[in-house]
Protein: Aminotransferase class I/II-fold pyridoxal phosphate-dependent enzyme
Organism: Roseovarius bejariae
Amino acid sequence: MKDWKPATLAAQAAGAQERETGGIVPGISVTSTYGRGPDYALLRPGNIYGRDENETVRQAEAVIRALEGAAATRLFPSGMAAIAAAFRTVPGGGRVVMQSGIYWGTVKWAREFCARRGITLDEVEASDLSLLSGALSQKADLVWIEVPSNPWLKLVNIEEAVTIAHAAGAVLAVDATAATPVLMRPLEMGADLVMHSATKGLNGHSDVVAGGLSVKDEGLPAWQAICSDRHDAGAILGPFEAWLLMRGMRTLPLRVERSSENALRLAQALENHDALEAVWYPGLATHPQHALAQRQMQGGYGCLVSILVKGGFEAAARVVSRLQVFHRATSLGGVESLVEHRHVIEPHTGIPENLLRLSVGIEDAGDLIADIEQALR
Ligand SMILES: *Cc1c(COP(=O)(O)O)cnc(C)c1O
């Protein structure tokens, strides 16, 4: 299994099987407690109580760990719960440097959390490394970046960011939700932690809410804190969600390949469209960080495409209302294509009024392109 490529690891759920019955697909372990023998020794060492550990959760974690090339992985009941677990490692009075213009849920929560804890939070345009190093001329505990960012689709040079963060004494964490481990493995670039909203591409079927954290080195003090926090504070994923996630991940490389291909074809088809002001996609040669995307991402550029409609808010709203294949809904990374008019969701964050974020699914690319084209007419 050590040498298995991602497609093999994913399809075979990193070797998980039903040991009792020989079933090829493991069952769902629903127990909330584990037995002890007459000598009061645990029947299975490590299995005490369902809040601490669960066999199905462990199996799903093993798949992510293998795909990520991580030393260890922990699953949480949502992506935000995983992010919160990482931020809770920062001591009161500490300092976080966070990339600006990232997932709004992270920004809103981090601002409130850091204010409550007396943690200094500095938001910086980390895609510009000179600004990141400027912010890290003073010590920090945690540097949080999101690559590619949602929905601005900016990239951060992860290797450089690691060097800068480590020199400032900080742990570098990457939210790599939009890339998935199929396209980008930040731990191999030196990042300490990688986070995924498994609700998105990892599960890919819009039927699970989950989040994961993976670590490069289990000895990292922040990782010890994250593990005991999940263990003791009880933020474990439910077994059914873990099982669905594992099932979803069996096709992860296939889905990511197709949705990235579709997204690139769509971005190319729309790039010079008269009704659009701009198309943002890291796979386009016109993307300001295309060269970095080519180096940092393998096998595609992901499912997220942002388009800016000429004519402002109303024009964008009209396009959204006319779409027939794309569902009007939040989220990303599913098999079905979604569109979101982000300004409606976050009107106060500087998001352009005419920006539509597309999450491109695995449908026929021609159908998707035709849908957008008819809506733009
Ligand atoms: C959705 C998302 C999250 C939060 O994940 P949930 O599973 O919804 O809690 C974090 N980061 C990014 C980039 C996301 O897209």
